[in-house]
Amino acid sequence: MAGIDGTDNPQIIEHLSKSLNLTPYDVKWIPCSSRFVMLGENARATGALHVYELSKGEMKLVKQVEKPKQFKCGTFGASSIEDRYLATGDFEGRVGIWDLERTEVPIWSTKGHDVIINCIDGCGGTVGAGAPELVTGSRDGSVKVWDPRQRDAQVADFSPDADGEVRDCWSVAFGNAYNGEERCIAAGYDNGDVKLFDLRTMTERWSDNVKNGICGVEFDRKDIQMNKLQVTTLESRFRIYDMRTQHPQEGHAYLLTKNPQTTIWAAKHVPQNRDLVMTCGGDGTAYLYKYHYPAERFTTDSSTGHRRGVAGSVELLNNRKLSDQPIGAFDWSSDKQGLFVCASFDQMIRVGVVTKLAKH
User: Fold this and answer.
1) What does the domain layout of the chain look like in residue ranges?
2) Which of 93, 94, 104 is nearest to 49 (CA)?
3) What average pLDDT does this structure show over 129-147?
4) What is the pLDDT of residue 319?
5) Residues 6 or more apart in contact with residue 313 via CB below 8 angstroms
6) What pLDDT was estimated at residue 303?
7) SS3 271
8) N or C terminus of the chain with fewer C-beta within 10 Å?
């Protein structure tokens, strides 16, 4: 699909790129800086942690760290702006927190899972009210929540029943963290299950099945009452659930949208505008969408009095092919609107800019 041209349409522009001699799995902007972190796997199956800085029109490698186990994922979400500690999950199932100025040993670490940690998210630090917590999802089927300030750091464990089927958890996300008491976690699994866990009641609050393996889940904002949840899948489809209204039988209303025939590895909402979202395609294309709310967000069943949600619509604002291989990781800068970094399966990292976002 060719990019969409238009005077007022945002334009997706590649600014810088760098070829790596390793496999990148995740990229994250360091808050309040022009730096980002790349996490991945060296050719000899060790962990790679690189810090890059944008300076004078160049992407400069300013720190290169090697650790025994491959890094799969990372987040700054549970750290304060002052500290900017990076939390990571690795192939051995270990959760670590790192001071990027002193990376000899982690400042906190625990063996969280028996096998690889596929995904991690943080809350209560840079974004969201409440305690600074991490959530991890693993191939062992479990979703675990951690508070590194506590001696027994594990504060929640949503694991499959001992005699139940174990499904690989591929994606996790915090949401509903609008005060010190409320907080939820969305989790997506390889069989298409999407589950919502309530950390206040420690229960599974809602679930659905999207019929394809779930590569990514993300709330449009963590620090508000749940509004929208985007779910991306292996087979070119994504759903946007309206989380404001939950019907007792039908659950949450959703919009189903299809990209071209390709896996959608992730969806990342623009930090400055929760109704704009970039999806990352298996064909190496980035697609920028805008969500439009319906005239009425719910209807009321006249016979039962229950509210039923109403889904909105999406508009494709533009798209840009950045790579010949899938884009596996993507992150927006929370400081400069439109600035992004992404990593692709061709062992490349790219920095780009989306223009004219303020007009949408």
Assistant:
1) 20-359
2) 104
3) 96
4) 95
5) 255, 291, 292, 294
6) 85
7) coil
8) N
